[in-house]
Specification:
The structure holds two protein chains of two kinds. Chain A has no helices and eleven strands. Chain A is an all-beta fold. In chain A, strand 4 and strand 5 form a beta hairpin. In chain B, the strands form three sheets. In chain B, strands 2, 5, 6, 10, 11 and 12 form a six-stranded mixed sheet that branches. Chain B has a four-stranded antiparallel sheet with strand order 3-9-8-7, with no helix packed on it. The radius of gyration of chain B is 14 Å and the shape is globular. Classes of the chains: A mainly beta, B mainly beta. At the A-B interface, strand 4, strand 5 and strand 10 of A face strand 5, strand 6, strand 10 and strand 11 of B.
Chain lengths: 114, 114
């Protein structure tokens, strides 16, 4: 088995601040994802990466940057934190993008902007 | 573009009964995968079951089964003999074959009472 570790679990930032969320997986999965979940809502894809150094924009990429310098890690940067983007950010991974396997999720980073 | 819709916001059932959660999807693709995930109160998201679009037989895993109606673009999740620990939010998702972008619905909250 493997695990996806997201750090930090809780992140408090000031409005306008640049904030970075980190994700590590030891599944040796090729594809990694960042989703945002607003309170009581579904998951919206921010960025995904199909291999090291690859980045693909999701539906919600504006205001975010991502980085995949190693196969095992995928970071997300909030370029200028806004109060309306307080949410839980979920990192996920899968072996490949063919749908043959499920997506595994981390436990999330809860972002609060003050 | 793909879209997944879950119209039931929440469902309440008594323990040991059977519940069905609805999900309809939109896609232009002829081959795709459909998934159901469960999010517990702790926020953890786990994969439950998958249906491949080319398979006519409904998938079954434990006390979870699917009602796949391809002409209606519908993939219902059926939970038989519900237990208290089935109380959670259930997300429907889809992925086109060869794609990487998993699209989620907004979720259905299930409450199982004793």
């Amino acid at each position: 088995g493997g695990i996806i570790t997201q750090t930090p679990k809780f992140l408090i930032g000031q409005e306008g601040q640049k904030l970075t969320l980190k994700c590590q997986q030891n599944f040796n999965h090729d594809t990694m994802y960042w989703y945002r979940q607003d309170s009581g809502k579904g998951l919206r894809l921010i960025y995904y990466s199909i291999t090291e150094n690859d980045l693909q924009k999701g539906d919600l990429s504006e205001g975010y940057d991502a980085s995949r310098e190693k196969k095992s890690s995928f970071s997300l940067t909030v370029t200028s934190a806004q109060k309306n983007e307080m949410a839980v950010f979920l990192c996920a991974s899968s072996i490949e993008g063919t749908g043959c396997t499920e997506v595994f999720f981390g436990k999330g980073t809860r972002l609060t902007v003050v | 573009a793909q879209k997944v819709t879950q119209t039931q916001t929440s469902i309440s059932v008594m323990e040991k009964t059977t519940v069905t959660m609805d999900c309809v999807y939109e896609t232009q693709d002829s081959s795709y995968f459909l998934f159901w995930y469960k999010q517990t109160a702790s926020g953890e998201i786990v994969f439950l079951i998958r249906q491949d679009s080319y398979k006519k037989e409904n998938a079954t895993v434990g006390h979870y089964s699917l009602n796949f109606q391809k002409p209606k673009s519908s993939i219902g999740l059926i939970i038989t003999a519900t237990q208290i620990e089935d109380s959670a939010v259930y997300f429907c998702a889809m992925l086109r074959t060869g794609g990487y972008k998993v699209v989620f619905g907004s979720g259905t909250r299930l409450l199982v009472s004793p």
